[in-house]
Amino acid sequence: MEAMKRRRVSDLYAAAPWIDWVLAAGLFAGAHFGLGVGQATPVAEVATPVSALSGIFAATAVFACGALAQSQAVIIRVARTVFAGDMWRNWVSIIGALALAAALPILGLYADHGAPHVAKALVVFAIALDVVVMVRVLWWVGYIARAQRDEDAPRHRTRQPSWMDSDDR
Predict the structure, then answer these.
(1) Backbone angles phi, psi at 54, to 5 degrees
(2) Rounded to whole angstroms, how far apart are CA atoms 123 and 74?
(3) CA angle 45, 47, 50 (to 5 degrees)
């Protein structure tokens, strides 16, 4: 259990889903204000595909969350017990962020008529949120896959089986 208390960057990342929101805001600010992304493209052309992509990402996240909940790997079972609060915060944040990222472009379609700059900002922020949150989802998918791979790996025996010790071979 001592190894479970060790804090690495990945542990801190897993325990702090708010990092996604900060990174998405930074990515949005850089893309929207710094690079002028989305200035020439009409919102109507990108809002629907971005919203659909967010929905696909949300489906992927729900699949990963289900895989984590159903995994019987020992390390996953221990993690579900020891870090239940962190995992709950992660998955609520992930699914909520992806649902918001799916809704923002649709809201952008309505805002496009009166305030096109707000509509573009909503779509660009949805893209930034999608990118950042999917990194977290893929991190969890990798965690689950590594745990399952390690669980399924053949164990090396430390001593020979008893049938190999007999002299009547």
Answers:
(1) -60, -40
(2) 41
(3) 115
